[in-house]
Amino acid sequence: MLEETLRTHDFYYDLPKELIAQTPVEPRDASRLMTLDKRTGEVGHRHFTDIADLLDPEDCLILNDSRVLPARIYGVKEGTGAHVEFLLLENKGNDTWEALAKPGKRAKKGSRFVFGEGLLRCEVTDVLEDGSRLIRFEYEGVFFSLLDEVGQMPLPPYIKEKLRDKERYQTVYSQEMGSAAAPTAGLHFTPELLKKIREKGVGLGFVTLHVGLGTFRPVSAQRITDHKMHAEHYYMPQATADLINATKERGGRVIAVGTTSCRTIESVAQKEGCFRESQGWTDIFIYPGYTFQGLDGLITNFHLPESTLIMLVSALAGRERVLRAYETAVRERYRFFSFGDAMFVGDLK
User: Fold this and answer.
1) Is 31 within 8 Å of 21 (Cβ atoms)?
2) How far is CA 254 from the centre of its chain?
């Protein structure tokens, strides 16, 4: 099927609601792991603790070290005491953030709000065309420390259970604060598992892509080529570029942990024409027909029907193979989405 004719509904699959994971498994690497050979479509079943067995010393893993903001904050409106929820999406600098407001009618331009009994205050400075707000904060102290006190993790709407430990929505290697949602493929790794992978000789490299607004917006266009991706900020350090280049030179596989790492790798390849230190904004949209320039394999979770993420996985392994694998995952009662199980997609030895 030509990519020009692909429609959003071509990436639909039927998912029983009870398979949407509401809580993370303990320990992190106890989740299940489906393997999908991108050449043959063959499916296998393992546990995530086995991931090191699927890697060779010549390979490298590229991980996204972005850290999730406790970006959901609940405030009261000065003067009326009306309650409003804000979801912080992007730091615009000078204590100004782009945010979603609910209910929006209470957050008009000029409105002021108080959070955490005065630890943070803000004013709505603008209402953007897409309905999001620009809000400017006032506070005393360190902003991110105060946000950690008053904020909650911005769990996706399909997770109804309250998260008991904020760190379970962070990867164990998260460093750079700035995401509105977790790069969830990395949630399965433990420090011990990463140590085991390193000791096998597999290279570990880090990039940063701050997950933003696009995570919360479904594909509304009927034809996927009409969909517009929201731009997100990325950074690849020279050390990671060097690792990718060395891996390619020795014939190893470059394996991304998560679609965000994948999009960073491919964005750098497109922008630079090679792998070197790079940063900027990317709205890269990867779907079937795309030719990968850096990526050989992918570790990822199971994604929503008709989402840009399942389209990306389909670009790597083929739409029909991926949908068949998802049907198998439903039949085998895998756990889906952010706190669910994982897939390894690539050339399997």
Assistant:
1) no
2) 18
Domain segments of the chain as ranges:
3-68+166-346, 72-150
The superfamily (CATH) of domain 72-150 is: QueA-like (2.40.10.240)
What is the DSSP code (8-state) at residue 303? -
289: left (phi over 0), alpha (psi -120 to 50) or beta: left
**Contact call for residues 294 and 244 (beta carbons, < 8 A):** yes
Distance of CA 191 to the CA centre of its chain: 20
Report the alpha-carbon distance of residue 145 to residue 40 in Å, rounded: 49
For the chain, the farthest-separated pair of C-alpha atoms sits apart, in whole angstroms, at 65
Q: Cα 339 to chain center, whole Å?
A: 12
* Cα end-to-end distance, the chain, whole Å: 28
In the chain, alpha helices (H): 143-150, 191-199, 238-249, 259-272, 308-317, 319-331
At the topology level of CATH, where does 3-68+166-346 sit?
QueA-like (3.40.1780)
Calpha distance 131→15 (Å, rounded): 31
Integer angstrom CA distances of residue 227 from 13, 155, 314: 19, 24, 16
Residue type, 211: V
285, 327 Cβ separation under 8 angstroms: no
- According to DSSP, the residues that pair with 266 across neighbouring strands are none
Tell me which residue of 234, 241, 254, 265 sits closest to 298, measured CA to CA: 254
Provide the residue-wise pLDDT of the chain in tens; the chain has 349 residues. Answer: 566 689 999 999 999 999 999 999 999 999 999 999 999 999 999 999 999 999 999 999 999 999 999 999 999 999 999 999 999 988 899 999 999 999 999 999 999 999 999 999 999 999 999 899 999 999 999 999 999 999 999 999 899 998 989 999 999 999 999 998 999 999 999 999 999 999 999 999 999 999 986 766 789 999 999 999 989 999 999 999 999 999 999 999 999 999 999 999 999 999 999 999 999 999 999 999 999 999 999 999 999 999 999 999 999 999 999 999 999 999 999 999 999 999 999 998 7
